[in-house]
Amino acid sequence: MSISNQQVVFSRGIYHGLPTFPEDKKNLTAIVAGANGVSGAYMARALGHAPERWGKIYCMSRRPPAVKMPEQSEFIQSDLLKDPKELGSQLMEKGVKADYVFFFAYMQAPPKQGGGLWSDAEEMVRLNKALFVNFLEALDIAGIVPKRVMLQTGAKNYGFHNGPPKAPMEEWFPRVELEPNFYYPQEDRLFEWTKKHSIQWNVAMPSYIIGAIPGAAMSLAYPLAVYASVCAHLGERMDFPADINHWQNMQRNSSAMLDAYFEEWLVLTDGTANQKFNATDGTVWAWEMLWPRIAGWYGVDFNGPVEGADYHEIEIGYKPPPRG
Prior knowledge:
Elements: E1 9-12, E2 15-19, E3 28-33, H1 38-48, E4 54-61, E5 73-77, H2 84-93, E6 100-103, H3 121-142, E7 148-152, H4 183-196, E8 200-206, E9 208-210, H5 221-234, E10 238-239, H6 244-248, E11 253-255, H7 256-268, E12 275-279, H8 287-297, E13 302-303
Parallel strand pairs: 3-4, 3-6, 4-5, 6-7, 7-8, 8-12, 9-11, 10-13
Antiparallel strand pairs: 1-2
Helix pairs in contact: 1-7, 2-3, 3-4
């Protein structure tokens, strides 16, 4: 086997098989938009682990960083819902340059009365399309043309929030258009903008993301930790809030740190240009194994599903579901 077909990997803490990169990948600049959220903060952290490769990291978000940022980073407080001219002027004043762009900015619209988290699909599109469109227009105004733009979307690309999708979910699947989905206009703008500038793009689609960032509510770790802490304080058992089907149902997650390492590799690899990639940790798990373990971490007992209990069922409004 020739050396060109080999990949040298390394470990950092609990993360193994991480890629190495050619020595000519050095003194790169990056913009991380949405750097104060779970994904963006871990992206900045991953890039910060390689100061010889990433000489400057511009971290953009509405709020100041909630955690320590890398030494080679510069925070730019910015609201991507503002006029792109204002954002572009801000980037020019800061002298921002970028070889690569990582976009994670996200806004959660208030759900409709009695609806689920993403029930106001139209408002989700309005807000999150504007974030991305304004950001790209600001880059134009500031004269910033990166080599590649990485947009992170997620499993809603397959309509899993509308019901069970086909499995395994594969990147070539057609769009699920049961209702508006802000991922799709974001993708359309990404394709248009990168084609206009003759540059490359990537879309990464992780599953449920687990990470620990203050103020980032969309992480399953937080409510579980709060519930377990309260049970420990009261000396009560952790009750599993669903039936036997959910207790044994197979789950997959994406850790924010591993996502970030993957997305760094994604943009720096020539063979991945202009493609979409799913991203999960690969470990399949079920609550029947994890629930007792969480209880053990907090020193409490637990209860699994209760046979014959009156569980509240939520019916997905789409028939047939995304899988047909």
